[in-house]
Design goal:
Elements lengths: L1 H29 L7 H21 L5 H15 L2 H13 L3 H31 L1
């Protein structure tokens, strides 16, 4: 029973390693501008778009290995809710309430829109 779980953990870990490394590279290239966490916004929005796209293309036809490696691993390592929330708290606590509110608004609204666009585009691509 433990053997299949270890195999699954390896797939999640492999995908997560790639996703986390890519997130770090985005952070190095984009970083922050004026103290605003643009890199975090970028990875969360592009991750939402990619997840929506893949969900639209495969719509329930994703095999367990792809789900583990890409959805849980890669996208789980690439996107980051914890960094988003902690950066928002830091902005609010350091007197940047407007930036904190903007971070929440941009991340949620643009992230949701990106996921919707991804799903719709993925469904179109799946139809041919």
């Amino acid at each position: 029973m433990l053997r299949p779980v270890l195999k699954d953990v390896m797939w999640v870990g492999a995908g997560g390693a790639v996703g986390s490394a890519l997130r770090y590279l985005v952070w190095r290239m984009v970083g922050t501008s004026g103290g605003f966490p643009w890199a975090t916004v970028l990875v969360n929005v592009t991750g939402s778009l990619l997840l929506g796209l893949l969900a639209g293309i495969y719509a329930g036809r994703v095999g367990p290995t792809m789900r583990l490696a890409v959805f849980f691993g890669f996208l789980g390592g690439y996107t980051t809710f914890s960094t988003f929330t902690s950066e928002t708290v830091v902005l609010a606590r350091t007197g940047s309430a407007a930036a904190a509110f903007g971070n929440v608004a941009i991340s949620l609204l643009v992230g949701l829109a990106a996921a919707l666009v991804g799903v719709l585009l993925g469904e179109q691509l799946a139809r041919g």
